[in-house]
Amino acid sequence: MRDDVKKLLSLQETDQSIQSLEAELIKIPQLQEAAKEQLANDTAAVAQAKADFQANEVEIKNVELDIGTRKNSVDRLKNQQFETKKNEEYTKLGEEVVRYEGQIDELETRELELMEIADDRRQKMADAEAALAKTQSFVDQEIVDLEARATERKADLAEAKATREGKVADINDEELMDTYTRLFNKREGSAIVQVTDQKSCKSCHVQVTPATYALAQSGAAISHCDNCGAILFP
Ligand SMILES: [Zn+2]
Questions:
Q1: DSSP letters along 119-140, please?
Q2: The CATH number of the domain where 25 resides is what?
Q3: From ligand 1's centre to the CA of 201, what distance in Å?
Q4: Which helix (DSSP H) or strand (DSSP E) does residue 194 occupy?
Q5: CA 76 to ligand 1 centroid distance, Å
Q6: Domain tally for the chain?
Q7: Count of CB atoms within 10 A of residue 8's CB?
Q8: Distance from Cα 23 to the centre of ligand 1, integer Å
Q9: Pair 104, 71: CB distance under 8 Å
Q10: If you count Cβ atoms within 10 Å of the first and of the last residue's Cβ in the chain, which end, N or C, has fewer?
């Protein structure tokens, strides 16, 4: 392999590392955000479960108050019944008592239903809290891990960039560097590629001409793929 092509190939390896490190460093904050979002969702679910439970508790209290009011009315009516001397009024008060007692029955049935709902909602609240606790510990660890990974990758990137500078200085050929840079960007990181024994370019997979293949083999000059322009090495 020609010396300049060998150096370019080595530079390309470094540039590929830089590219993937930069991509990872973009992704890390996104992963952290996703973890935080999951935590926020689980926190909101707990708050909702608590609110649902509380609303039901308020309803139970109201039903209990209604029952209490009607029981007081029944006591009052029974006293009046006891004190009256008129038959007609006695009967009328008795009917009122029956009406209130009917309402008390209905309210007590409703209270039982609400208590069953309370059991169900208490369970849902406990489930939501358990899910949140699990997510919390997972997310805390995840964020710490991602932070450590970011620190590590930043150091790797700084090192790769320093290595790159050294390699570019060693190539010391502006025109060749321009060609390389253009190809690297255009061919998504594959500027310097092997041409196989079947004369196929490993970047675009098109067969090169025998002359191009021969040039890559001899190394008399830099050989470019006839189709994609990539710099070829044997
Ligand atoms: Zn090609």
A1: HHHHHHHHHHHHHHHHHHHHHH
A2: 1.10.287.1490
A3: 5
A4: strand 192-194
A5: 101
A6: 2
A7: 27
A8: 25
A9: yes
A10: N
Same-domain pairing of 68 and 141: yes
Residue 139: the pLDDT is 94
> Are 198 and 220 members of one domain?
yes
Query: Does the predicted TM-score (pTM) go above 0.90?
Result: no
Same domain, 127 and 161: yes
Output the CA 160–ligand 1 centroid distance in Å. 27
* Res 81: pLDDT: 93
Residue 192 CA to ligand 1 center (angstroms) comes to 10
Domain enclosing residue 218, as ranges: 173-234
For residues 209 and 199, give the distance between their C-alpha atoms in angstroms, rounded to a whole number: 8
Q: How far is the CA of 16 from the centre of ligand 1 (A)?
A: 18
- In a domain, residue 112? The reply is yes
Rounded mean pLDDT for each run of 10 residues along the chain, 234 residues in total: 95 97 97 94 98 98 98 97 94 96 98 98 98 94 95 98 97 94 93 96 95 96 95 96
213 & 127 share domain:
no
pLDDT at 91: 96
In this structure, the answer to whether residues 207 and 97 fall within a common structural domain is no
Would you say residue 139 lies in a domain? Answer: yes
Instruction: Give residue 211 CA to ligand 1 midpoint distance, Å.
Output: 14
How many angstroms is it from 13 CA to the middle of ligand 1?
A: 18
Residue 42 lies in a domain: yes
> Who surrounds ion ligand 1 at CB < 5 A?
201, 203-204, 225, 227-228, 230
**E strands, 15-158, where?**
none
Give the phi and the psi of residue 207 in degrees, each rounded to 5: -75, 135
